[in-house]
Design a protein that fits this description.
Elements: H1 2-29, E1 40-46, E2 52-58, E3 61-70, E4 79-87, E5 96-100, E6 116-118, E7 128-132, H2 137-151, E8 156-162, E9 165-174, H3 177-183, H4 195-213, H5 220-229
Helix pairs in contact: 2-4
Length: 230
């Protein structure tokens, strides 16, 4: 009798688990949907981790927004990073990577291909590592001021400059403690990304690239026009 009852119970449990997994997958894929109005010509996608991606144009530049889940054995809680990449040829050959609170496990950051290490400029957070290609010192001098403004936000993890544009990676949230410590599951306490958190990163990335391509910062009027158009 017990065996007969066990079959439908197991079947119901399996169905509930599949349903929960589908709902979680759908939720991860749609986390960036509220941010679509910030961009012109927004395109939603999904990467191999199952998290949604968002591509479009901001301030006239092609941009890509991604969510990067990271869980390391030595990290107390998993992290969910928000990555904003702005694609625009700068006409400069150097690459510069500014990384904060280095753990050695930042798989998304450039590695040995950046052999030169540069002194952390005055006024920057003390736990900042500055690496780059050889001869990227001039790039650091030109971009130092806007990078310092970006680093004023404690959640910013990385600022990357390449000949193809710029990327800013910022902490979105930490994983839920109970799910991680007991089950080793990466559960994050948010269901959607707030556009008010993403927009400043988009503006900063655009300012940073324009600082490299042309002289002078973005004017406030241009920012307002660009945000309205997006």
């Amino acid at each position: 009798m017990i065996e007969i009852l066990a079959v439908p119970i197991l079947g119901a449990s399996a169905y509930a688990l599949r349903r929960s997994a589908r709902a979680a997958s759908k939720g991860r894929a749609g986390m960036l949907r509220p941010c679509a109005p910030l961009l012109a010509e927004p395109i939603h996608g999904r990467d191999r981790t199952g998290y949604g991606t968002l591509r479009g144009r901001f301030a006239g530049f092609p941009v890509e927004v991604r969510l990067i889940p990271e869980a390391l054995v030595f990290r107390r809680l998993p992290q969910l990073w928000l990555s904003v990449s702005l694609h625009r040829s700068t006409g400069r050959s150097g690459t510069l990577d500014v990384l904060r609170r280095v753990t050695g496990g930042e798989f998304y950051a450039p590695g040995p291909e950046l052999p030169a290490r540069y002194p952390t400029p005055d006024g920057w957070p003390g736990e900042t590592l500055v690496r780059g290609s050889r001869g990227a010192g001039d790039l650091l001098l030109r971009a130092g001021a806007p990078i310092a403004e970006i680093l004023a936000e404690p959640r910013v993890k990385e600022v990357l400059l390449t000949p193809r544009g710029a990327r800013i990676v910022s902490q979105l949230c930490q994983g839920e403690r109970g799910a991680y410590l007991l089950l080793r599951e990466n559960r994050f306490p948010i269901s959607q990304v707030d556009p008010e958190y993403l927009q400043p990163l988009l503006v900063q990335a655009a300012e940073l690239v324009r600082q490299l391509v042309v002289e002078g910062p973005i004017h406030a009027r241009e920012e307002a026009d660009d945000c309205t158009a997006a």
